[in-house]
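Hi V.,

Quick status before I head out on leave. The structure for the redesign project is tokenized and pasted below; the design run finished overnight.
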């Protein structure tokens, strides 16, 4: 009976505690299942990777701030991938569209205590760059994009000035894309462009040689003219002195009182007359010769001016023909209703590093419903497709989709005629709500920053000093002559456009583009 009573009491106790035990077990089960789910939901950490195929030169790099990774693409897809570390809060890496502007194998920071930034590839002149650096596994830089040291070294020699760099808030990738508005080169223009550029280059070289010879001849004629004028002055002075001596001899003869004095005066007067006649004859002969030689000098000078003008004209034509063989980049801004064209001249900029980009073509553009956001889309010609081009699209900012964005745009026919027939691989069209950043100048392709994303690592840096925009590298007097476009004043970062965006750092909006 005692045993039975004890068992009954234990069973009753278990029944009383049963709900609590069951609740505890359920909580434990939920905890473990939640951790397992979190492990499954968390994206796998990015590791360095190389595509398992033969690959060509990179066409673009896409940095994902969200995924903390960078991916390089060639014409067939991704080729290299690696983790990165972008800017911390308050020093955020700016999202937007950029290009490689300068490369430095062993760069030392001028902003951060001579910090080592190996294999640096600059994308803005105010200091944002891709470079090797420590990767703690999260955003930790002051605005640059840190890459693994070995990865940065590996790709350093594969990239080039002008290569597209896209920094996206999310994780995006290029997709195959086609649209009637994309450049459609003609086979005749593409085939003929190199030979035309070579022929015009030779013509420009001949014109430059002829101009140099003409300038040398004009300079020699000018020196002869100056020497001749100096000789004429001396002969004229000698003629004047001899005439004065003759007048003095005449007076002395008239004043002679004796036969002896008269004889002496007559002898002196005859000598003075002979001397004056000789001086006059020399002067007249030299003057007649000088008229002919001065006429030749003037003709030579005019010929030199004409030769220099032809040199300038042919050099400009040759440069345009050469640029037609280079990839063309077009930026279309809904904010400014303008279209901007860039081509790399590959001429070193002598006043601050990098290379000079041709900036000579800008045009108003028509955008349907200009007050409606259009997004930011990057269309890139990644390779030839028969006689045409094969394109990809990347969208990094909401608005229209890529097709609808292009549907809304009408590019002037004269602009298309200048750039579309000879468009080659690596050409691009960028459509964006944003204006060009004030960091855009003649030493950049395009710098466009998304105004609805944090920009602390961009706007807290010292802005690049404004520089005159030099068309087609004409600062070098290589045939164009030296002429400057109006001073580039850029566009500031535009104000925040949509609700729910992160805090935005921006400069005050200026009233106009120039």
């Amino acid at each position: 009976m005692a045993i039975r009573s004890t068992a009954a009491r234990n069973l009753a106790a278990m029944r009383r505690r049963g709900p609590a035990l069951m609740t505890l077990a359920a909580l434990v089960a939920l905890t473990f299942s939640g951790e397992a789910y979190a492990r499954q939901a968390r994206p796998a950490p990015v590791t360095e990777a190389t595509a398992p195929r033969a690959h060509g030169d990179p066409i673009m790099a896409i940095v994902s701030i969200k995924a903390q990774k960078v991916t390089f693409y060639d014409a067939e897809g991704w080729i290299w991938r690696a983790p990165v570390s972008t800017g911390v809060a308050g020093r955020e890496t700016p999202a937007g569209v950029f290009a490689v502007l300068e490369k430095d194998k062993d760069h030392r920071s001028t902003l951060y205590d001579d910090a080592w930034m190996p294999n640096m590839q600059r994308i803005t002149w105010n200091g944002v760059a891709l470079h090797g650096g420590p990767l703690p596994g999260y955003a930790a830089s002051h605005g640059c994009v840190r890459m693994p040291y070995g990865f940065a070294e590996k790709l350093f020699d594969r990239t080039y000035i002008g290569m597209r760099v896209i920094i996206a808030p999310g994780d995006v990738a290029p997709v195959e894309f086609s649209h009637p508005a994309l450049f459609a080169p003609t086979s005749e223009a593409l085939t003929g462009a190199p030979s035309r550029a070579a022929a015009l280059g030779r013509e420009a070289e001949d014109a430059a040689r002829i101009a140099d010879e003409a300038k040398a001849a004009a300079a020699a004629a000018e020196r002869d003219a100056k020497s001749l004028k100096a000789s004429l002055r001396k002969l004229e002075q000698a003629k004047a002195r001899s005439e004065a001596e003759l007048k003095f001899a005449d007076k002395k003869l008239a004043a002679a009182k004796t036969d002896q004095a008269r004889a002496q005066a007559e002898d002196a007067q005859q000598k003075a007359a002979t001397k004056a006649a000789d001086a006059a004859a020399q002067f007249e002969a030299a003057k007649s010769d000088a008229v002919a030689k001065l006429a030749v000098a003037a003709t030579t000078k005019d010929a030199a001016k004409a030769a220099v003008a032809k040199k300038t004209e042919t050099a400009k034509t040759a440069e345009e023909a050469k640029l037609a063989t280079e990839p063309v980049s077009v930026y279309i801004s809904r904010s400014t209703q303008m279209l901007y064209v860039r081509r790399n001249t590959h001429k070193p900029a002598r006043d601050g590093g990098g290379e000079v980009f041709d900036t000579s073509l800008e045009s108003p553009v028509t955008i349907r419903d200009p007050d409606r956001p259009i997004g930011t889309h990057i269309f890139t010609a990644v390779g030839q497709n028969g006689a045409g081009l094969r394109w990809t699209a990347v969208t990094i900012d909401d608005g229209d989709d890529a097709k609808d964005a292009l549907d809304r745009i009408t590019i002037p026919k004269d602009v298309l005629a200048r750039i579309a027939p000879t468009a080659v691989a690596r050409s691009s069209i960028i459509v964006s709500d944003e204006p060009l950043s004030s960091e855009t100048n003649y030493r950049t392709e395009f710098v466009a920053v998304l105004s609805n994303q944090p920009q602390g690592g961009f706007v807290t840096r010292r802005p690049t000093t404004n520089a005159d925009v030099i068309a087609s590298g004409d600062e070098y007097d290589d045939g164009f002559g030296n002429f400057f476009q109006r001073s580039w004043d850029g566009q500031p970062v535009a104000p925040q456009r949509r609700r729910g965006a992160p805090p935005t750092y921006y400069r005050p909006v200026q009233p106009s583009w120039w």
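Above is the designed sequence. The mean pLDDT is 81.

G. will cover questions while I'm gone.

Best,
W.
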